[in-house]
């Protein structure tokens, strides 16, 4: 997931629609809310989350996603500026 790449969270695809997220040494913040040192297992599949107690079901409203988006959008990483200067050409 691009969001976790930007933040610097390691992702390990475990198949069965599951991903293990672990902290890295290159994260934007030393402690990311919702991510323990041991990491967490996430899934985007509700059925998998219901069948596996160790997997957290992730949606746009999940604190992990919301905290990540807030981190990116409130810092320098998620900011950009564009300007256009139109002038008459000098001959």
UniProtKB/TrEMBL annotation:
Keyword Nucleotide-binding found: no
Q: Which UniProt keywords apply?
A: Hydrolase
Q: Which InterPro entries match?
A: RapA_C
Q: Name one GO molecular function term.
A: hydrolase activity, acting on acid anhydrides
- Record-annotated RNA polymerase recycling bacterial C-terminal domain positions: 2-89
Q: Which domain of life is it from?
A: Bacteria
What Enzyme Commission number(s) does the record list for this chain?
3.6.1.-, 3.6.4.-
Transmembrane region(s)? none
Cited Gene3D superfamilies: 3.30.360.80
| Pfam families xrefs | RapA_C
Q: What class of enzyme is it?
A: hydrolase
Protein name per its UniProtKB record: RNA polymerase-associated protein
Q: What is the lineage of its organism?
A: Bacteria, Pseudomonadati, Pseudomonadota, Gammaproteobacteria, Enterobacterales
